[in-house]
Amino acid sequence: MLGLPSTAVYFQAQGITALVYDPRGVGSSDGLPRNDINPFREVDDMSDALTFLASHPSVHPQQGVGLWGMSLSATVAMATAAIDPRARFVVAVCPATEPTHNLPKLHAVLVKAAKDRESRLKGNEPFYLPMLNKKGENPAGFDPGFERGAVVRMLYVQDETDPLRASLAPGHVNRTTIATYRYMLLWDSTHMWKYLTQPILFVLPEHDHLIGTDRQIRHYEGLNEPKRLYIQEGAAHMDILEGATQDKVNAVQGDFVRDAIMGEVVGG
């Protein structure tokens, strides 16, 4: 995710231990099939990551471990915290709920996904689709809400022939299983949010074309206290952790984590 490494580096520089990992089957993590994006499994992965980090010698047992996520992983972090009370706090950066779909395209993909499931039960390899084509469009009709510049950066973030970019996003490929779209259509963790009791920070961009900032604010208003909201002026969904807004957003996140550890995030 764009901006994730620099955010982790900021936390580390502030004395906040950060664990960055790839969910199973993605990037540097093992697991098959590759790039089978299933947020239900990712909840278990995040809970297991919490278990790992909580036992690490750099983590103070009394301070505990919080969860962080951006976009889809923000909703995964919130769902994980809702069912795992060990999570001390949650930072949710522009959580991606209620994405829109091109229904005619989606129906065709779901027909193929059903055939793919039949094929996989026979022992065949999964069928894949590119996440984004050269026009920056999702062939399944899923609207990721990405700005054109962000699409270009994601499509060309890694290039094995370019020494300057060969080491970026190792293991990343621009494709997912077609079954991914079945999981994404089923995934909606908003009904779990009423079980959240930990302090939560919502970090939203002023211009979110994926969900809409107004709609995200309504989700925030429905959360239990204690909670905190920050809206970054001038930012969009895919650049909120980059460029000119990066330092401000990181400072807000760092302040919240310190307050959450000290028990100083109070309800309104």
Question: How would you describe this protein?
Answer:
By secondary structure, the chain is of the alpha/beta class. Helices cover 37% and strands 13% of the residues. The protein is built from 8 helices and 6 strands; from the N terminus they run ααβαβαβαβαβαβα. A 4-stranded parallel sheet has the order 1-2-5-6, with helices on both faces. Strands 3-4 form a two-stranded antiparallel sheet. Strand 5, helix 7 and strand 6 form a beta-alpha-beta unit. Helix 2 packs across helix 3. The chain starts with a helix and ends in a 6-residue tail after the last helix. About 3% of the residues have low confidence.
Descriptive labels:
268 residues, alpha/beta, 4-stranded parallel beta sheet, two-stranded antiparallel sheet, 8 helices, 6 strands, 37% helix, globular
Into which percent range does the helicity of residues fall?
A: 25-40%
- What does the oligomeric state look like here? single chain
Gyration radius from CA atoms, angstroms: 19 Å
The major β-sheet equals: 4 strands, parallel
SSE topology:
Blueprint: H1 4-13, H2 39-54, E1 65-70, H3 72-83, E2 87-93, H4 103-121, E3 128-129, H5 148-155, E4 176-177, H6 180-186, E5 200-207, H7 213-221, E6 227-236, H8 246-262
Parallel strand pairs: 1-2, 2-5, 5-6
Antiparallel strand pairs: 3-4
Summed up:
The protein is built from eight helices and six strands.
